[in-house]
Amino acid sequence: MPRRTRHVLAISSGGGHWVQLKRILPAFEGHELTCVSVDTALAAEVPSARRFFVVADANRWNKLALVRSALRIAWICLRTRPDVVVSTGAAPGWFGLVFGRLFGARTIWIDSIANAERLSLSGEKARKVADLWLTQWPHLARPGGPHYLGSVL
Length: 153
Known about the structure:
- By secondary structure, the protein is α/β, with parallel strands linked by helices.
- The chain has a single domain (about 5-150), classed as Rossmann fold (3-Layer(aba) Sandwich).
- It is built from four helices and seven strands, in the order βαββαβαβαββ.
- It has helices at about 15-25, 65-80, 90-100, 120-125; strands at about 5-10, 30-35, 50-55, 85-90, 105-110, 130-135, 145-150.
- The chain has a seven-stranded parallel beta sheet.
């Protein structure tokens, strides 16, 4: 029986979050891929993506950018109707999981490898909306999650 093609929405902010997200994208080969990040130039790095959307680079200190980013991500989820939302963080990824879940998508959070001592703020919040909640550090794993299945880098 052939495997059903799924629509995957891969979302992260820039920098290390984006690098880690790109490294897991081969796992979604054969599926329809839409990527979301904070810089238009990053679209060239994911030629396998059918679509690429840009959102405001937001954090907890810039509330207006957070609202703009959240609204844009809600619109993207409404428009694309993903089956799966996967994120390596930070705020844009968390919004992606929240809105993806509202529209019936399965959600995967992979906390950044940079968070070696404790989970990120977004990673902590992801516990409530992620179907699969992962850390890249074995000592941060707990029986109820986050789970450790290896590191991306």
